[in-house]
Write a structure and sequence with these properties.
The complex is a heterodimer of chains A (about 375) and B (about 220). Chain A has about 375 residues and is mostly beta strands. Helices cover about 10% and strands about 35% of the residues of chain A. In chain B, the strands form two sheets. Chain B has a four-stranded antiparallel β-sheet. A two-stranded antiparallel ribbon of chain B has the order 1-2. Classes of the chains: A mainly beta (about 375), B alpha+beta (about 220).
Chain lengths: ~375, ~220
Amino acid sequence: MHKPTRVLRVALAAAPLLFASAAHAACGPADTDFSVASALPAVSISVDLDGERVLLGKRGERVPTDARLAVLDDGELMPRMWVDKVDWSAYRVGNNPARPTPTKLYFDPDGKLCRIERYRSMRGEAVLERGYTLSYGASGALTAYTEYSLSSASNPKPYFATRSACLQRDAQGQLTTFIDDGCGDPKSAGARRHFVRDDAGRLIRVIDLVSPGQPVSVQLLDAQGKPGPRYVRRANNYFVPGADTTPLAYADPPVKQRERLYPVERQTLAALPVEVAENPWRVVRIKDDVPLDDDMMSWDPDTQIVLAEGAQSTPGGAILTPAQQQAVWQAMGEHPGRVYFYADPMSRVMLLPAMPAEKWKACSDPANTAADACAG
Amino acid sequence: MHTHSDMNMPLSAAGFRRIWLLATTVLFTVLIALHASTSHAQTFDRQQENQRYQQWLEAFRQDFQTLRQSPDPATADVDAMFANTLVPGSRATQLVRELAKAKGGSTSGEIHFVGIARVFMAALSDSVVAGDGGVYPDTHATYKSQTLRVRYMHVDGGGRLERYFNNPEVFTPYRLPDNGVYARDAYPFLLFEDTQGKLRLGGVSKEFWDLVKFMDSLQYA
């Protein structure tokens, strides 16, 4: 048994080394002193990351760069991460001190990018001008990054953080909160996006907040993960005396509107405010066969069903009878985006039913994982 | 995982065997992983191929500079001048002859337009090698004897070229073919002779040349 034992000792001694690469996968905190050089080996890269680039992806695809490492593109639910899609090996150059490269990358033993440095050439010297530090969670997914820039000469700290983003994740590594900037800073508690998942891990709602406790929109997703109804909370853009400007939540019309939107609570229908009194007014519903985005056609009285009308509005607004209020309210619920209030024959606003405050509270609560959180 | 207290306990023969099995399994896994990564690298080493491409580009740029500075570029002996960077008698030498004859920059009002040769050089400089498409199946009698490899090129363009790459009439759609697979209307490519570790350009694909023309047209847009 002597010989195998010796081999065994060597194997056992080597085992921790083999496991070590997995244990050291984490790049370290994103929030750090950027002036401290990385202990990891530097990889020189020929690409200058200042300015727009479209780099070679690992599968040959085109990967647009961005000053942000996680980008929320218009209309997209999930932030787009790009650094891990790039095949950096195509841009690798030898470490030639005579020809400094604009970019240096630092990878951990698992190949995770931990640090990016961007150099500027100043009087023949390469100056570390800005960069990023990245950190990853147990699942290997990006959880935070910080962008640093060179401070002015008078500043005692050589680098200051210009952006700190975080991507909070659940135990499975799925994104729960994305904070584009001001992560971990109580003074600048910034905009964030929450991802609400049901117990099976399926994404059901995406909630945007301008700051903690200030939700502004909720996007629902159907069982296939496709965007469904969207609820927003904002001040109406029907600026007339007497119109309440308190922001109200409502279901965003399915078609992008050029019309002014006027979300109202049920009781507001008793007297709809007008800019100039004594004009003839009416509330109409556009017939269902008129396309929602065809506002030329929807102005045609032939396409409209009159729900309420009056020969003259009063200084207190257009006064609707209880029966008219009921008819209008019902039409608003049954035909969303098709009910208009004409304060005079030449101007109109779209009437939208406001979501009750308690319903909005439940709908926009990231902790609420009920499937029908926004249903009413 | 074994903790320290396990290690301090006397081990039985069976325990030894278990650990021995575990250790060999770990070693095997590592060896398989290493083998997988090296065999992958052998398929197409983008790092190495791009360093070779950069060396070729540097030499080609110098040859092109020599041509432009020669007394009469239109009648210069391109085969001799580009002996190190172009395959003699290839489509690429034809192209370079045409570029030598093409007019250089022009100025209209205060706007300066660069010539097509400069745009071609800019496209090459903005490129990295993305993949290999095997030996180019040339059917033209003149070029049949030349063995040229298809090299798929990724051209950056800083976002200004996406309209070209997304055009369904040019690419059906834009995608990198598998290693060693030759495909048209998929990815811009260049043809290179690769003998004794040296690259010489032998041809420019329609996909790549139309991109150069697109870049040229952007100047006037």
